[in-house]
From TrEMBL:
Keywords linked to the UniProt accession: Repeat, TPR repeat
Segment forming the signal sequence: none
Protein name: Tetratricopeptide TPR_2
TPR repeat spans: 7-40, 41-74, 109-142
Pfam families noted in UniProt: TPR_1, TPR_16, TPR_8
InterPro entries given in the database record: TPR-like_helical_dom_sf (IPR011990), TPR_rpt (IPR019734), Ycf3 (IPR050498)
Source domain of life: Bacteria
UniProt source species: Algoriphagus machipongonensis
Residue ranges crossing the lipid bilayer per the database entry: none
Length: 221
């Protein structure tokens, strides 16, 4: 009789393929582990991640759901299903899952940023700002977090706060053309800083943000 690999051996082989970013090659190992134990939450979650990495978001969601049904006490499948729903534009479902993940493990800082982006999409600006601030407390050198915080601040009618966040964005990422554009538009429309705003818009255009050209043509010398 041939010796069949164990459930744990199959799981580890799949994870090794994941470490190599061989997403499609990992899935058969997880499937074989699940044949031995359909309730293996780790294998289910890992299979979902492999599908997610291939942008098969609709396929990934029921796999994450099965992982949650197998063990609802671990945050990862809730977090991963939230991300898959976000990619599909299911923002309310995404937010509910982020909330569950956060409740299960508040120390996971990725949850704060991702949930903040979902809240931003739902126009829940104050809650989004709280999440972005929580992410920045852990690591203040995150240009993308500042950029999205600025969008939430603009939505919350706080242009002064947005200008500060956008300044932090471009200080951390000097090639963020969209941030320079938003910085220029906000300066000109909210604070009347025409000279500084035009300089920001020209920087945005130089970095390839073509929408800046209309503002420059209309308002800048």
């Amino acid at each position: 009789m041939s010796c069949q690999p164990s459930e744990e051996e199959l799981l580890q082989a799949g994870i090794e393929k994941m470490d190599q970013q061989s997403w499609s090659e990992a899935i058969p190992y997880f499937d074989r582990a699940l044949e031995q134990n359909p309730e293996n939450a780790t294998a289910l979650n890992a299979k979902g991640v492999a599908l997610f990495q291939q942008e098969k978001f609709e396929e990934a969601i029921p796999v994450f759901t099965a992982a949650i049904e197998s063990d609802s006490s671990i945050y990862k499948p809730w977090f991963n299903r939230a991300n898959a729903n976000f990619e599909l534009g299911n923002l309310k479902e995404s937010l509910a899952d982020f909330n569950m993940a956060n409740g299960l493990d508040p120390s996971q800082t990725d949850i704060y940023y991702n949930r903040g982006v979902a809240l931003l999409g739902l126009e829940e600006y104050e809650d989004a700002i709280l999440d972005f601030d929580a992410a920045l407390q852990v690591n203040p050198n995150q240009a993308l977090v500042y950029f999205n915080k600025a969008k939430a601040q603009l939505g919350n009618n706080n242009p002064a706060g947005a200008l500060e966040s956008l300044t932090n964005t471009v200080n951390l990422d000097a090639k963020n053309a969209a941030a320079y554009y938003l910085l220029g538009v906000t300066r000109m429309s909210a604070t009347g800083e025409k000279e500084e705003g035009c300089a920001d818009l020209k920087m945005a255009l130089n970095l390839g943000y073509t929408e800046a050209k209309t503002w420059i043509d209309d308002f800048c010398d």
